[in-house]
């Protein structure tokens, strides 16, 4: 169960007590506040707080130009211009604070994005719940033969059953030993900060994660990509849904220029120009390595 009864009661209480405010609000985000959205088997994300909206991005951008510029260019057009030309500072005027419940191994990958404020559940002071991420059979895959950090075909039959049994048995055994070590019934009991070292990386942790929109877009560009690891990608995809309702113009520009766009090198642009003139360009005449050429051909089809 991703949300405990106590957490759900807290959510219900918070949503039942709306507060008047003079600050700008985003109707789309207001609908998401405090609601928890399930991810994986025991995880979730929920919005705790936010600041700013599409208008805040434009307000920050226009401070350099003075009054009167809004009539020249509408907000959506300005936001697309900022995104297109990598003017990132105005996007930093928006912030979001999320409560996330996620497996430890996903958290360790997530925390590599060092541009957020994080406060994680402490296993030094509290006892972790007996909840582990166990992949669905379709997400048990062999090592990719072409990508050292990717997956290949899904395991099947006896192999899949054997792996699932290992994951479940090992997680249960480690937690049993953890609980026994910290128990003070008839023994001193090992300190929690030491006992936690025996817990598996698929146990769930929780944190508050606060980040500005510019750095959030960077996180989503990498983690919502189809090549990202499934277990972190599903969190990023759920966050994308929230951001699309929060700052629809900014998210639309992000989706177009970052998620759906491509960056071409100087050599690649030169090749495109030569092709448009009718010249036949090959990898050997392009000046690119085989890897660069393969990626270039993937972009232009």
Automatic annotation (TrEMBL):
| UniProt: FAD binding residues | 89, 112-114, 120, 212-214, 218
Q: Which Pfam families does the record match to this protein?
A: Thy1 (PF02511)
What is this enzyme's EC? 2.1.1.148
Q: Name one GO molecular function term.
A: flavin adenine dinucleotide binding
| Known pathway | Pyrimidine metabolism; dTTP biosynthesis
GO biological process: one example: dTTP biosynthetic process
The protein's required cofactors: FAD
What keywords is this UniProt entry annotated with?
FAD, Flavoprotein, Methyltransferase, NADP, Nucleotide biosynthesis, Transferase
**Active site per database record:** 223
Residue positions annotated to bind dUMP are: 109-112, 120-124, 196, 223
Kindly state what the record says about how the cofactor is bound. Answer: Binds 4 FAD per tetramer. Each FAD binding site is formed by three monomers.
Q: Which domain of life is it from?
A: Bacteria
PROSITE patterns given in the database record: THYX
Catalysed reaction equations from the record: dUMP + (6R)-5,10-methylene-5,6,7,8-tetrahydrofolate + NADPH + H(+) = dTMP + (6S)-5,6,7,8-tetrahydrofolate + NADP(+)
Quaternary structure and interacting proteins, as annotated: Homotetramer.
Q: What is the protein's known function?
A: Catalyzes the reductive methylation of 2'-deoxyuridine-5'-monophosphate (dUMP) to 2'-deoxythymidine-5'-monophosphate (dTMP) while utilizing 5,10-methylenetetrahydrofolate (mTHF) as the methyl donor, and NADPH and FADH(2) as the reductant.
Family under the similarity heading: Belongs to the thymidylate synthase ThyX family.
Protein name listed in UniProt: Flavin-dependent thymidylate synthase
User: What organism does the UniProt record list as the source?
Assistant: Yoonia vestfoldensis SKA53
Task: Identify the taxonomic lineage of the organism of origin.
Answer: Bacteria, Pseudomonadati, Pseudomonadota, Alphaproteobacteria, Rhodobacterales
Query: Gene name, please?
Result: thyX
């Amino acid at each position: 169960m991703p949300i405990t009864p106590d957490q759900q009661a807290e959510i219900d209480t918070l949503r039942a007590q709306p507060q008047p405010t003079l600050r700008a609000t985003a109707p789309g985000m207001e609908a998401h506040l405090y609601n928890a959205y399930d991810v994986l088997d025991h995880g979730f994300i929920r919005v705790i707080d936010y600041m700013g909206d599409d208008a805040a991005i434009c307000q920050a951008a226009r401070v350099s130009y003075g009054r009167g510029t809004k009539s020249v260019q509408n907000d959506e057009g300005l936001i697309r211009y900022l995104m297109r030309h990598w003017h990132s500072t105005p996007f930093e005027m928006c912030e979001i604070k999320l409560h996330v419940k996620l497996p430890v191994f996903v958290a360790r990958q997530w925390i590599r994005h060092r541009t957020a404020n994080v406060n994680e559940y402490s296993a030094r002071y509290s006892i972790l719940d007996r909840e582990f991420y166990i992949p669905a059979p379709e997400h048990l895959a062999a090592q990719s033969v072409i990508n050292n950090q990717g997956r290949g075909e899904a395991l099947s039959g006896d192999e899949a059953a054997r792996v699932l049994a290992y994951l479940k048995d090992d997680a249960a055994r480690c937690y049993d030993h953890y609980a026994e070590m910290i128990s003070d019934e008839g023994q001193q009991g090992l300190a929690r900060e030491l006992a936690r070292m025996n817990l598996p990386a698929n146990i769930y942790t929780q944190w508050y994660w606060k980040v500005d929109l510019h750095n959030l877009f960077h996180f989503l560009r990498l983690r919502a990509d189809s090549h990202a690891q499934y277990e972190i990608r599903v969190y990023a995809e759920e966050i994308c849904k929230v951001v699309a309702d929060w700052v629809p113009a900014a998210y639309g520009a992000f989706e177009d220029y970052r998620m759906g766009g491509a960056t071409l090198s100087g050599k690649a642009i030169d090749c495109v120009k030569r092709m448009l003139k009718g010249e036949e360009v090959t990898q050997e005449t392009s000046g690119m390595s085989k890897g660069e050429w393969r990626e270039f051909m993937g972009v232009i089809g």
